[in-house]
Amino acid sequence: MFVKRITLFKMFGFSVRIDASWLIIVVLVTWSLAEGLFPVMYENLPTMTYWWMGIAGALGLFAAIIFHELSHSLVARRYGLHMKGITLFLFGGVAEMGEEPPSAKAEFMMAIAGPISSMLLALGFYGIYLVGKGAGWSVSIIGVVGYLAVINAILVAFNLIPGFPLDGGRMLRSALWYWKNNLRWATRIASKIGEGFGMVLILLGILKVILAGNFIGGMWLCLIGMFLRGAARQSYQQVLMRHALEGDMVRRFMNTNPVTVSPAISVQQLVEDYVYKYHHKMFPVVDGGRLIGCISIQQVKEIPRDRWSQRTVGELITACSSENTIRPDDDAMKVLSMMNRTRASRLMVVEGGQLVGIIALKDMLSFFSLKVELEDGGR
Question: Which residues are catalytic?
């Protein structure tokens, strides 16, 4: 989902990050408020005032989104779920879970925490709006506070739609899960509703462009609809993968005869004789039968091409660590979690300080695809 993330700060032990796409929405929200909404609602104010109102409204919106996702994260942590952090991206924010909730009750409590927090914000801002209006505060302050009250109420209504992965969809999934005691079935139903809702948004967006001539509004509806459809499908695939790989150990998927390189060879030789031949992005580095680390094409890319013949692999080596190694008896889901966190497609399998294999993401995905096809085909 995310391309490049930047950590802003930490709160209650959770890292709050922004995806590069978030910058797009910040500019668009600020612009739409400063040039569209506020001038229509509050006429004859200076242009600079509208822009300050737009900036304040955009920052308030994203602070509200952080509060919403933080509420999810705090409840999830109470139920023992490991949360990777909170990331703001193109369509809002997401609290990143490292695993599925342990029970239907945990799912429901975690899901409902977000809408409750947004409702509290909406009521709080509305109360401030009434106080400010009665006290004669400036139009610019009242306008921003009123906007934040309304937008938080809209966030509540939108998130309560029963389509996965929205909060309402998670609440629906928890109810179905509790009813049938089948997380996979519950996720499939909730995800299908989420996909259907995404398609409705896409159709509404097309109609808005064709009938109303509102190209920007229509395109946003289409983009949000496409995102929801994709997120619903991806969420269901994650559950399928968890069920397919659950209980399997790393040794089932690892390659026990991995290609290794010597620290003495040049970067040029590494590229010509290994990268172009085997098409791997990472190679273990072995010296005298002893694993001393690994080297990736990302490290090679940092070296100017005209210096490849002058630099050796040993000079660029990355030492073995918990970020690039795994044990043969570790659970396969731990591997997927590590690969997701580190963005690595291959990990070294180490036992007793010795390299015993390599586990690749593509091999695990191939196994998952075959297992799901066979099991679904047999039903």
Answer: 69
CA dihedral of residues 226, 231, 237, 242 (deg, nearest 10): 170
**pLDDT for 18 beyond 80:** no
Are the CB atoms for 100 and 242 separated by under 8 Å? yes
Helical spans, DSSP H, in 246-360: 267-270, 276-278, 297-301, 313-316, 332-342
Going by their DSSP bridges, the two strands 83-89 and 5-11 should be labelled as: unpaired
Residues 361, 250 contacting (CB under 8 angstroms): no
Per-residue model confidence as pLDDT tens digits over 294-328: 998 888 998 899 899 999 999 988 888 888 888 88
Q: Output the six-digit token pair for 313.
A: 């692999």
Asked if pLDDT for residue 26 goes beyond 70, the answer is: yes
Across 32-57, average pLDDT: 90
Q: Do 117 and 69 touch, CB atoms closer than 8 A?
A: no
Domains located in the chain, CATH noted: 5-245 (no CATH), 250-375 (3.10.580.10)
Maximum CA pair distance of the chain? 80
